[in-house]
Design a protein that fits this description.
The protein is of the alpha/beta class and 302 residues long. The chain has eleven helices and 13 strands. The chain folds into three domains: 79 residues, Winged helix-like DNA-binding domain superfamily/Winged helix DNA-binding domain (Arc Repressor Mutant, subunit A, Orthogonal Bundle), CATH 1.10.10.10; 100 residues, D-Maltodextrin-Binding Protein, domain 2, CATH 3.40.190; 101 residues, Periplasmic binding protein-like II (D-Maltodextrin-Binding Protein, domain 2), CATH 3.40.190.
Length: 302
């Protein structure tokens, strides 16, 4: 058994595909397949069930693969620790985020890259459910998501760093007749069409609103912030989301947006923060990045 074989196993387990692992590691498929076969023979246990549809960990191989994943994480920690002794951070950080506060994320990455130019970033924008799945499947290192108390309990095996407690507010363009108000009665919102982020917390808001107040007229859902902002600026519709979803934009006069609180509508508290697996929480890169993100957040909103 050698480190190379273990790295191949971990990458195949992450991607559930020898082809994808081959592309990610820049190693031929035959080399990966042969290395895993040799390791299975040495351990006398089948690690994967292989088919045309991919490579899926066997029930007996899952625990061994988890230990290999821990081992690879430890090896990464050793490399990072060695680099930190030389005041160097090298590596890659994959980030998934709900569509919220993207300006803070980009600012943090920009400053991080200036200090640590050898760190590479991968960023994706997804819903909280998809991010949780990617975290558990080790497809991303850290995720910025929103969770209620029940969801936090169900995911207690993960590390969650709370940033703030979010609430749903309404966003309108300055041309909207609602823009002069600070608060709006919930029933008043039934008069207006909505454009919404395609995110779990927004879906939950819509379901709750439909049941308790009345049915919302939803024109479309998207994770394209630009499309939402254009619809609001042109007074084609209004939107709803976390109070920080557009906060970076509302401070910019060019976007001409206003935020309104919703009256007569009971909301369930929702925590927004960074989530990661326990083994990823020891990563020097993720620790330093989250620390810097929190500092950036506090400077912006404190």
């Amino acid at each position: 058994m050698n480190i190379e074989q273990i790295q191949y196993v971990v990458e195949v387990a992450k991607t559930k595909s020898i082809t994808s692992a081959s592309n990610n590691l820049h190693v031929t498929q035959s080399a990966i397949s042969q290395a895993i076969s040799n390791l299975e023979s040495e351990l006398n246990i089948k690690l994967f069930t292989r088919s045309r549809h991919g490579a899926i960990p066997t029930s007996e191989g899952q625990n061994i693969i988890l230990k290999m994943l821990d081992l690879v994480s430890k090896l990464e920690e050793i490399k990072e620790e060695a680099n930190s002794q030389n005041d160097v951070i090298v590596g890659e950080l994959s980030i998934a985020s709900i569509p919220i506060g993207m300006d803070i994320l980009i600012n943090t990455i920009t400053k991080f890259k200036k200090d640590y130019p050898n760190v590479q970033f991968q960023i994706s924008e997804k819903g909280s459910g998809d991010i949780l799945k990617d975290i558990r499947d080790n497809k991303v290192d850290i995720g910025l998501i929103g969770l209620n108390d029940d969801q936090l309990k169900k995911n207690s095996g993960l590390i969650f760093n709370k940033i703030f407690e979010g609430r749903i507010v309404v966003f309108v363009g300055k041309k909207s007749p609602l823009s002069s108000f600070k608060k709006v009665p919930a029933k008043e919102l039934l008069k207006y069409p909505f454009v919404l982020y395609n995110e779990e917390y927004v879906h939950e808001f819509v379901d709750h609103f439909n049941q308790s107040i009345g049915k919302i007229d939803v024109w479309f859902k998207t994770n394209n912030t630009g499309a939402l902002v254009r619809a609001l600026k042109n007074d084609l519709a209004i939107s709803a989301g976390y109070d920080l979803s557009f906060l970076g934009l509302t401070s910019d006069e060019n976007y001409e947006l206003a935020i309104l609180e919703i009256e007569d509508f009971v909301q369930e508290p929702k925590s927004v923060g960074w989530i990661q697996t326990k083994n990823k929480s020891h990563s020097l890169i993720s620790k330093e990045f989250i620390k810097r993100y929190l500092n950036e957040f506090r400077e912006r909103y404190s």
